[in-house]
């Protein structure tokens, strides 16, 4: 018997970043939107823990116990006093090291899949606590939809959305390390007073109303200057999307994937075609959100 879970990628429509905390993390006001680009995680009973991965970026995914999916299985098994004896297979469509929470998606997916396979009966609250131990983005991968994350981004409040938003994502030629981008944020912030991160009321209202124009005027990412500083060519991709009619352009999370908000599905395809023709990125995808979080298929 196998269990397969489908888990979406995310885009951060607002990422407000506070000053570095004593533990090295940053307090955030992180407004997540789950979008329809998915990894599928399948768990099957096996003699011992094993991870395999397929997909265009599979070669970049670690297959040892550092894989977030393996760490999720180990964490749940330890809580139940059992062995994590499963084969975890990841069908990966979310870009690796792209700032779209691909590894986090696999962590949340493996956790839900193992909980189902083992009849481990972890409550939603216990699953969320394990997710938060695995990484700041992992709880959101479990819940999906739209949510505000505070603290490290792991303390979630679900947000209302009044419609579907259409996005284009441009994948870059290389990845960016999330810790490196936060370090660059700290370097650029030196000598400046960093305000407390707060969610933008205009942005929350735009999401609730499903108002794409208002959302376009309210999106922001405090990590964008740091991502651009480490990866200056991203400015060319942003420019190409803006020129093609995107309502808003931004770096997704810690980057280097860039995200473009389009007025509708048709215009999203036009922006995607222009980005493909621009030669400023590795590949281009369209996806709409919000979509559901980790779901057993
Ligand atoms: C950039 C975002 O993707 C936006 O959603 C997240 O904040 C990152 O979430 P994540 O990849 O799950 O990150 P984690 O695995 O928890 O942390 C990786 C590293 O990112 C930095 N980090 C992450 C989250 C946070 N609130 N402050 C940080 O400074 C820390 O250097 C940390 O060691
Ligand atoms: N299941 C996994 N899939 C992809 N990468 C993983 C996985 N588990 C661990 N990793 C490691 O995590 C690193 C970051 O990959 P990931 O795709 O999660 O980045 P990301 O999308 O930028 O993350 P985030 O948006 O949460 O900051 C990879 O370079 C890889 O070494």
Tell me about this structure.
- ATP binds at residues 95-105.
- InterPro entries: GHMP_kinase_C_dom, GHMP_kinase_C_sf, GHMP_kinase_N_dom, IspE, Ribosomal_Su5_D2-typ_SF, Ribsml_uS5_D2-typ_fold_subgr.
- This is 4-diphosphocytidyl-2-C-methyl-D-erythritol kinase.
- The protein is α+β, with helices and mostly antiparallel strands and 297 residues long.
- The protein is 35% helix and 29% strand.
- The chain has 2 domains: 3-159, Ribosomal Protein S5, domain 2 (2-Layer Sandwich), CATH 3.30.230; 165-289, GHMP kinase, C-terminal domain (Alpha-Beta Plaits, 2-Layer Sandwich).
- The chain is built from 10 helices and 12 strands.
- Strands 1, 2, 3, 4, 5, 6, 8 and 12 form an 8-stranded mixed β-sheet that branches.
- Strand 5 and strand 6 (155-158) form a beta hairpin.
- The structure holds 4-diphosphocytidyl-2-C-methyl-D-erythritol and adenosine-5'-triphosphate.
- Residues 61-62, 66-69, 90, 96-104, 106, 137, 178, 253-254 line the site of adenosine-5'-triphosphate.
Quick structural gist:
The protein has 297 residues and is of the alpha+beta class. The protein has 10 helices and 12 strands.
Mean pLDDT: 97
* Number of structurally distinct domains: 2
Task: Give me the CATH architecture of the largest domain, please.
Answer: 2-Layer Sandwich
Name of the CATH first level of the largest domain = Alpha Beta
Hetero compounds: 4-diphosphocytidyl-2-C-methyl-D-erythritol, adenosine-5'-triphosphate
Low-confidence sequence ranges? none
The helix-and-strand class reads alpha+beta
């Amino acid at each position: 018997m196998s269990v397969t879970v489908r888990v979406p990628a995310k885009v951060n429509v607002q990422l407000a970043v506070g000053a570095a905390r004593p533990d090295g993390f940053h307090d955030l006001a992180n407004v997540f939107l789950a979008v329809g680009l998915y990894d599928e995680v399948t768990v099957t009973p096996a003699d011992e823990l094993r991870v395999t991965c397929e997909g265009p970026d599979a070669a970049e995914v670690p297959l040892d116990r550092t894989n977030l999916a393996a760490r999720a299985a180990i964490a749940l098994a330890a809580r139940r006093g059992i062995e994590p004896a499963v084969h975890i297979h990841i069908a990966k469509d979310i870009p690796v090291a792209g700032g779209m929470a691909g590894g986090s998606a696999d962590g949340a997916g493996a956790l839900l899949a193992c909980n189902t396979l083992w009849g481990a009966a972890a409550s939603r609250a216990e699953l969320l606590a394990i997710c938060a131990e695995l990484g700041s983005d992992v709880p959101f991968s479990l819940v999906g939809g739209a949510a505000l994350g505070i603290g490290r981004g792991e303390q979630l409040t679900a947000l209302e959305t009044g419609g579907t938003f259409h996005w284009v994502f441009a994948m870059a030629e290389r990845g960016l390390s999330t810790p490196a981008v936060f370090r660059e944020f700290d370097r650029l912030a030196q000598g400046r007073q960093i305000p407390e991160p707060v969610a933008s009321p205009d942005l929350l209202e735009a999401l609730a109303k499903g108002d794409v124009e208002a959302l376009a005027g309210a999106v922001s990412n405090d990590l964008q200057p740091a991502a651009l500083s480490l990866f200056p060519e991203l400015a060319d991709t942003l420019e190409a999307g803006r020129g093609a009619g995107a309502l808003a352009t931004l770096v997704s999370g810690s980057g280097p994937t860039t995200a473009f908000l389009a007025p509708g599905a048709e215009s999203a395809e036009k922006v995607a075609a222009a980005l493909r023709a621009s030669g400023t990125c590795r590949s281009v995808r369209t996806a709409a959100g919000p979509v559901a979080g980790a779901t057993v298929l």
